[in-house]
Amino acid sequence: MARLLYSLLAWLVQPLLRRKLMRRGRQEPGYLVAVEERFGQYAMPALPDDGRTLWVHAVSLGETRAAAVLLATLREQWPAYRLLLTHGTATGRAEGVGLLREGDVQVWLPWDTPAAVQSFLDHFHPRLGILLETEVWPNLAAGCERAGVPLVLANARLSEKSLRKAQRLAWLSVPVYRSLAAVWAQTQDDATRLAAIGAPVQGVFGNLKFDATPDAGQVARGQAWRTALGRPVIMFASSREGEEAELLQCLRQAGEAARAIQWLIVPRHPQRFDEVAELVTRQGFSLARRSQWDSAPGLVEMSTDVWLGDTLGEMALYYGLSDAALLGGSFAPLGGQNLIEAAACACPVFMGPHTFNFDEAASLAQEAGAAQRCSDLASAVAAAQRLVQQPGRQQAMAREACRFAKAHRGAALRTREALAVYLG
Are residues 31 and 76 in the same domain? Predict the structure, then answer.
């Protein structure tokens, strides 16, 4: 009865979803691609029901990068499988294009109505579904169970906040988690929370993102640009709404001390690039956008107050360019963004009090000396400024960041071994 009511609501709000996609598509055209796929209608031919389709769902950009790590090791073990890759966001889908090989298919995850889910399963005939991190939907789980498609949750995480929400909706969430074939958690705390709502946790494998290898060419290019610049660079990595304005206020208050440093802002969401650019110039700072550079920052860019990292797929370059990074999403109660890539690129991290999305990674990084927690953005800005003015200390922290990133690898191999039960 509970899922019936949920399904009715999901069906009724479909017109609102279409309108939301149209509005979002005006800022991010990727949302206007193949809209009907979200409702179970496909222009491409159906895949054969031959047991050779491996379905991986990576909702957004971060999950797609984790999927890249997992897929690399899965293809080594099972090269005969074709990939069915699904997403929920335009950034995830754009990143996922680079993971496709001949014969693979990429579509949107269907909206969670029984009809759309059934159409998806009938069209693609997946042998196994691998959901990454958090994406579990009632009708999707029920449809897979009816169709005999094992559905697993890999690299799984569940924050305390999400657990409380799931417990309030236990009538809906508990049956969904119980229906999963297996769950492999990132941390023991995640495992405990997932088990509390009925998930069949079968192991704690660590975070797949530790197994990612940054683009060495991008890192080297960023480091070369930093050397040519001749002054320290501090990056605000994956900044969220409201945080950029607070940073600019800190820079204004710092005065001359702030001008001795090159500031780089890389917003988390690409639809905010223009908004952040306008904010910076409105506050009286000069701005250079990475998308408008030639191959490297020129004389004009080198005399600019703020650089805006408004490109996709260049985070390794930005971290290589930076002496230190402020962790976006951690200075407002948003849970923080992933700091593992920064550490792998030897970039020390300064984070705020809100890291509940990556609690264990944040704590381990702090213990290793790869990151420092600060009470607010102003204190993080001050601490980062002090670090970059002390080359010896900065280099030591960068070395610890590298060691920390390398010490926690292995999740991809452990996940591959667990998947052998389903893939042979």
Answer: yes
Amino acid making up residue 140: L
Q: Global pTM? A: 0.86
Verify that 190 and 254 share a domain, yes or no: no
Under DSSP, the state recorded for 131 is E
Q: Is residue 293 exposed (0-12), middle (13-18) or buried (19+ Cβ within 10 Å)?
A: middle
Residue-averaged pLDDT of the chain: 93
Residue 340 CB neighbours (<10 A): 26
Active site residues: 63
Q: Quote the CA–CA distance of 203 and 182 in Å, as a whole number.
A: 9
The residues that bridge with 264 in the sheet, in sequence order, are 235, 307
User: Is residue 398 within 8 Å of 347, Cβ to Cβ?
Assistant: yes
CATH number at residue 67: 3.40.50.11720
Do residues 321 and 390 both lie within one domain?
Answer: yes
pLDDT surpasses 70 at 1: no
* 191 in Cβ contact with 185 (< 8 Å): yes
Together in a domain, 39 and 102: yes
